[in-house]
Amino acid sequence: MALIVQKYGGTSVGSVERIKHVAERVAKFKMLGHQVVVVLSAMSGETNRLIKLAHDVQSNPDSRELDVLISTGEQVTIALLAMALKDLGLKAKSYTGSQVRILTDNAFNKARILNIDEQHLRADLDSGHVIVVAGFQGVDEHGNITTLGRGGSDTTGVALAAALKADECQIYTDVDGVYTTDPRIVPEARRLKTITFEEMLEMASLGSKVLQIRSVEFAGKYKVKLRVLSSFQDEGEGTLITFEEDDNMEQAIISGIAFNRDEAKITVLGVPDTPGIAYQILGPVADSNIDVDMIIQNVGANNTTDFTFTVHRNDYARTLQMLREMQPKIGAREVTGDDKIAKVSIVGVGMRSHVGIASNMFKTLADDSINIQMISTSEIKISVVIDEKYLELAVRVLHKAFNLEKAA
Amino acid sequence: MALIVQKYGGTSVGSVERIKHVAERVAKFKMLGHQVVVVLSAMSGETNRLIKLAHDVQSNPDSRELDVLISTGEQVTIALLAMALKDLGLKAKSYTGSQVRILTDNAFNKARILNIDEQHLRADLDSGHVIVVAGFQGVDEHGNITTLGRGGSDTTGVALAAALKADECQIYTDVDGVYTTDPRIVPEARRLKTITFEEMLEMASLGSKVLQIRSVEFAGKYKVKLRVLSSFQDEGEGTLITFEEDDNMEQAIISGIAFNRDEAKITVLGVPDTPGIAYQILGPVADSNIDVDMIIQNVGANNTTDFTFTVHRNDYARTLQMLREMQPKIGAREVTGDDKIAKVSIVGVGMRSHVGIASNMFKTLADDSINIQMISTSEIKISVVIDEKYLELAVRVLHKAFNLEKAA
User: Fold this and answer.
1) Which of A174, A196, A212 lies at the terminal end of a domain, its last residue?
2) Does the first or last residue of chain A, that is N or C, have fewer Cβ atoms within 10 Å of its Cβ?
3) Same-domain check for residues A255 and A166
4) Do A79 and B93 touch (CB under 8 A)?
C-alpha cells in the first residue's frame, strides 16, 4: 500500500465527462489498496474567465480580491470530483486551501507556501477517504485567501506530497511524459523514462512546459518522487524525475533538446570598455521589470566593447527604444536588435563527464550552414541563438546527431 | 452616523454594470458618513448553473460537497464588488462566510446560524472599510462550508445587522417595497410605507415573495429594523417592517391582500365521525412529505364527517391517489379533488380590534357571485378558497372594498 498524490490540470477536469474519467482513474488506485490525495486545477478556461471579469470591474484588480475571486475555480472542481468519487461508491472529501490550512505568506497572486497542516488529511486518509484538495491556493496567517500564481497547482501537489511523505507525486497533464524534444518537430522524439531533477529544471525553464519550474524546485528540495503522466491515456508510466544521477547507470549523455522562440536580442555596439558599463546598460532594463535571459559581452576595437542580451519578445520594442534613448549617455556607437531569433539548447547531466559535446553541437549546426549568433553554457546545457527560420532544422539535426531517437 | 447593512439579491449583482451600480449606491451612503456592511447573493442564474453541474456529476449530489460548490457563487460577487468599491476610491474588504466566521449547525444545504463573530468586522468598519460579506453561507464548528438554503442571503443580512446592532438592515430587491397587493392585478395597488412584522409574515407565507420568511422571523426575534427597497431605483424609501403596532396610530385595519394559485384541494366525504379520524387521513400524507396548508372538518349526515384540506398543486395527483387507495380502510363514502382553486387572504393587525371585517369580505365576494369554498382565519388574516377563475376579480373588489388604494 502506497500513499500517492495525483495532480490533474485544467484540461483533465475541463468537463463533467473528464471529471468522471478522473474519478475512475482514482478509483483504480484505491482498488489497488493505495491511499490517494488528489490535487485539482480549475476547469480549463475558468481562471481566465474570472480574471476577465475582474478587469471588467477594475482596470488593475485589487490583488487581495483577485485571489478571493479566482480561488473559486478550484473550489468548483474539488466539489465536483468529490461527488463523482462518491457516485462510484468511494469515500471522498474536498478541502479548499484554507480548509487544509496550506499556510502561505501574504504575497497575493504569487504567494509561497510556508507550512501545511497535514493532521486532518492523515486522519481522513486513515479512515479510507480520498482527499480532494484545491490546488493553487492557500491562506495567510490572518485568514486571507491567497493564490500561488499560474501553475501553482503543481506546487500544491508537490508540497502536499512532501508534507504527507507520499511515495510518489503524479502530475497528470495532456502529454504522456517528457520527450527528448517536441514530437511535432521531430517525429522520432522519444519519451524519457527518467530525467534528472536538474535536467528537468533546464528543460522547463527553456520552454518545455510540462511542469512548473517552481514545483520541480520544490520536489528537489524535499526529495519528492515526481512523475509526469497523461490523463488522456489509461496506460503508460510517464516520465519519472529522479534526484540521484547514478539511479540510472545507462544515463544518456544528452537527455533532450529544448527550444524557445519567445526571445529577441538587443545589441549595443562600441561602448567604452570601462568598469560598471554592464550595470549602466542593464540596470535601467531591470528597473523597468524587463527580464533579461542571455547576456554576452565581447571585446571590440579601440578599447570599446560589444554587448548583447536577450529579452522576451513582448519586451523587445520597449527595450530597444529605452536603449536608443540611453545611447548618447552611455556613449555607444550603435544599438541594434533582432526579434527573429530562436534559442536551441541541448541538456544532459552526462555532459559533465564527457568532453566534445559542445564541438559536436557546433559542427552539426555548421554542417547545415546554420550560423550561431550567441552561445551560453552551464554545467548541464549548451544554448545557442540562431536565426528563427533555422529552428526546426537545427532541432532535427541535433536530435539525430546525439542519437536521441534510440533508448539509452 | 449610522451603521447600515445592505443586502443585494442576484439580479442586483447580475452583471458587471449592475455591480458597479451597487458600488455607486454604497459610495453614496459612505459619503453621508455612514458605516456600511454589504451582503451579496450570487449573480442571478449562477447558483442554478452550479446545481445543474452537480446533478450532471451525481444524480443526488452529496450535501456537503454541494455547499462547497454553490458557495463559490457569492465568493465571486463579493470579490467583484470589493474591486468596484476600490475603483471608486473607497476602502473595501470582502469576507466569505467562513472568514467572518458565521458559525452554523452542520445541516448542509439548510444550515441555521448559531453565532456571528463580529470583532474583525467591527475593527475594519472603524478603520473606514466597507465590508462585503458573502450571503447564504457559513461554516460549521469543524470548518466545513455550509449554506443556509435558498434566500439565505436575506437571513445573513439580518443576522449581521443583529450581531453588529446595526441601525437598519436594507434589503434591495427588484421591487421598491411591499404593496397592498400585486399591481399587475390591481393597478391602484399602493406601496406601504410600513408594515408590521406579523403582517409581513402572513404576506410572505401567503406568496408575496419580497422577503424570505426566515429572515423576517429572524428580524423579529432580534428586533432588527428591516427595510425593503428597490436596487433599480435611486430614490424611494421602500417599506419599513415595524415591530410595534402602535408605531403608527393611523394604522389601517387591512394592510394588504395576498393570494396564491399554487394549491389544490382534496375532499374526503362521509367518513365515520370517530376520534383519530383526522390523524388517520393526514398522518400518511405527512409521512409522504406532503405539506398540508388549510384543513377544514365539517359535521355531515348520519354520524359521518366531511374533511377537506389543501396541498401544493405539485402534490395534488399523488395525494389524490393516496387517499383513494386509503378510501376503503378509512370507510369514506367518496374522495374528490379540485386543482383549479385559488386562495385569497386579507391581512392586517387592525382586524384584531375591529369587528365586521370577515362579514365585509364575504359580502363583497357574494355581491359579485364569487362562491367561497373554504374559510380559514387567524388573528390577523382571513383566507378564503375560491374558484381560480375568479381570482383577479376577487382581489380587485376586495382591494376596493377595504379602501386600500388610499393611504392610511
Assistant:
1) A174
2) N
3) no
4) no
Whether residue B87 is contained in a domain is answered as yes
CA distance B207 to B210: 9
- CATH number at A294 reads 3.30.2130.10
A65: which chain B residues are within 8 Å (Cβ-Cβ)? 79-80, 82-83, 86, 94
In this structure, is residue B71 part of a structural domain?
yes
A57: contact with B, CB 8 A cutoff: yes
Half-sphere exposure at residue A155, Cβ-oriented, CA atoms within 13 angstroms = 24
Domain containing residue A344: 245-408
B350, B351, B356, B362: CA torsion to nearest 10: 120
How many Cα atoms sit within 13 Å of B49 on the Cβ side?
A: 8
Question: Order of strands across the sheet with B102-104?
Answer: B113-116, B102-104, B137-139, B145-147
Kindly give the interhelix angle for B357-367 and B391-401, rounded to the nearest 10 degrees.
130
Only one residue has cell 532544422, namely A393
Residue that the C-alpha cell 449547525 belongs to: B105
CB–CB of B306/B300 below 8 Å? yes
Judging contacts by C-beta atoms under 8 Å, the chain B residues touching residue A146 are none
Q: Running DSSP on this structure, what letter comes out for residue B166?
A: -
- Indicate the range of A196-200, B165-169, B206-210 predicted with least confidence: B206-210
B67/chain A closest Cα distance in angstroms: 8
Tell me, yes or no, whether B152 lies in a domain: yes
Are A151 and A273 members of one domain?
no
Residue A376 CB coordination number (10 Å): 16
- How many domains does the structure of chain B reveal? 1
B65 vs A: CB within 8 A: yes
- What are the residues facing A93 on neighbouring strands? A131
Asked whether residue B404 is domain-assigned, the answer is no
DSSP class of B313: G
Give the cell for residue A341. Answer: 531569433
State phi, psi for A192 to the nearest 5 degrees. Answer: -85, 135
Q: Does B93 touch chain A (CB under 8 A)?
A: yes
* Per-residue pLDDT at A249 exceeds 90: no
Count the Cβ atoms, other than its own, within 10 Å of residue B150: 12
Upper half-sphere CA count for residue A296 (Cβ side, 13 Å): 17
The CATH number of residue B45's host domain is 3.40.1160.10
pLDDT digits (tens, 9 = 90+) for B139-149: 999 999 999 98
Please give the distance of CA A352 from its chain centroid, rounded to a whole number.
23
User: For B315-335, b where at least 16 C-beta lie within 10 A, e where not — what string?
Assistant: bbeebbebbbebeeebebeeb
* H-helix or E-strand spanning residue A198: helix A197-205
Cell 522519444 found at? A190
Q: Is the pLDDT of residue B310 over 80?
A: yes
Nearest to B91 by CA among A270, A162, A65, A403: A65
From A142, A174, A206, give the residue that closes a domain. Answer: A174
pTM equals 0.81
Residue range B104-156, pLDDT digits in tens:
999 999 999 999 999 999 999 999 999 999 999 999 999 999 999 877 999 99
